[in-house]
Amino acid sequence: MVLSRVKEALENLGVKPEDRILVALSGGADSMTLLFLLNELGHFCQAAHCNFHLRDKESNQDERFVFDYCLGRDIPIHVKHFDTQEEARKRGISIEMAARDLRYKWFWELVDKEGFQWLMTGHHGDDMIETFFLNLARGTGLRGLKGMRPKNGKLIRPLLSLQREEIEQFCHENGIPYRTDSSNSDVIFQRNNIRHNVLPVMNMLNPSFFNTMLHNFHNLDEAWQIFEKEVSEVRKNVVAEEDNQMLVPLRLIREHPQKRTMLFEILHPYGFNSKTIDEVIDSLGGTPGKQFFSQTHRLVRDRYNLILVPRDEADHRFYYIQGDDENIEDPFPMSLRIFEKNDDFTFSRESECVHLDADLIEFPLHLRHWQDGDHFRPLGMEQFKKLSDFFVDQKFSLVGKEKTWLLISGEDIIWVVGHRIDDRFKVSKTTRRILELKVKP
């Protein structure tokens, strides 16, 4: 019965007999059953096993077990070792999330390198139900409650209609060996707590709870597809992208009847959780400048927009420009030339091209970002102005200020690049030589 159900599932999912399949093989009952079934059905398979080194000797024993099993049946197997704890520490994420990211990154590399049509995992229905309760407790929204899809691109999960108990019974009936993770009974882990304490109560309340949940997942997935279409429309009409940043107009978010849900769906792919979204909503009526952080991105509440940018380190370096340089490439492409002023000279109207009095300038020049206390004399003014006040007057966003480069001669700002030169260094009637600076597209 299990064989026929999986055979039908594979056919419905578009898997052809000649397709090359990579099986994620942990050594547990589910992945061992999947590999056994695919071989019984005549599919060409290779296995991929990850050793995360999280369970001392057991991790190495799992590796030896799957290696010997595949070797004895002429099934090619790929094995990779990971320092999972270091990855989690480095990225500031959970061990579980680090392991998931590491394995799928490697799996997809194998799929591309070896030319597999499909990557298959042994996820079953109980996995899906446990994930539902985990996500319900975490507050992931509808996205986390809709269950796993049996097919997502090249990823296929053929066992989602099966229960853990069915799979283990199938292993016993067919002599399929498998490894049991000793930590599976430890309720300190949230998933195990749900498995051993929550699901038995649900099954007592409803003896058909498993089938009821499969039906619920189908309904939730259909509801999600309707909702996802609405979210896509809002993204298309509300969200703008420019200069590696995403802009979400505050006015449109404030006016949306489901602002919290919509904002969650827009920002969740960038690592923002439900609690942070609540804080963002609370900030909409406050003053600009508040910032929110995920592991990978920064969200700035500006005057008119929420601005999303990658969370990379600010560039605090100085980039020097010598007097004989004609072109520079870092931190951005720019050309330089010095020429004698004559009667034919005309000023450029482009903001990315300026002309300065070359004899007033001290080389080497250098480029840097703004610092507290910076000031200059904007073109046309007789008094100095704090750069921070200039930014406010010109309605710079916080992100815009951080990205703006300053060209420095000695201790003086001579050009707020792309915006304004210093009046002291302008080309005047007494200028003899001109320095032309042009930022290249």
From TrEMBL:
**Cellular location(s):** Cytoplasm
| SMART domains the UniProt entry points to | TilS_C (SM00977)
Write the protein's name. Answer: tRNA(Ile)-lysidine synthase
Write the Enzyme Commission number(s) for this entry.
6.3.4.19
Briefly state the protein's biological role.
Ligates lysine onto the cytidine present at position 34 of the AUA codon-specific tRNA(Ile) that contains the anticodon CAU, in an ATP-dependent manner. Cytidine is converted to lysidine, thus changing the amino acid specificity of the tRNA from methionine to isoleucine.
Family classification = Belongs to the tRNA(Ile)-lysidine synthase family.
Q: Which domain of life is it from?
A: Bacteria
Give all residue intervals belonging to the Lysidine-tRNA(Ile) synthetase C-terminal domain.
365-437
Q: Name one GO biological process term.
A: tRNA modification
Its ancestry begins with: Bacteria, Pseudomonadati, Bacteroidota, Bacteroidia, Marinilabiliales
For domains, the record's comment is: The N-terminal region contains the highly conserved SGGXDS motif, predicted to be a P-loop motif involved in ATP binding.
Q: Which reaction does it catalyse?
A: cytidine(34) in tRNA(Ile2) + L-lysine + ATP = lysidine(34) in tRNA(Ile2) + AMP + diphosphate + H(+)
Q: Entry's SUPFAM superfamilies?
A: Adenine nucleotide alpha hydrolases-like, PheT/TilS domain
Q: Which CDD domains match?
A: TilS_N
The residues the record assigns to binding ATP are S26, G27, G28, A29, D30, S31
Q: Name one GO cellular component term.
A: cytoplasm
UniProt keywords (A-Z) are: ATP-binding, Cytoplasm, Ligase, Nucleotide-binding, tRNA processing
HAMAP family under this entry? Answer: tRNA_Ile_lys_synt
What is a single molecular function from GO for this protein? Answer: ATP binding
Q: Which organism is it from?
A: Marinilabilia rubra
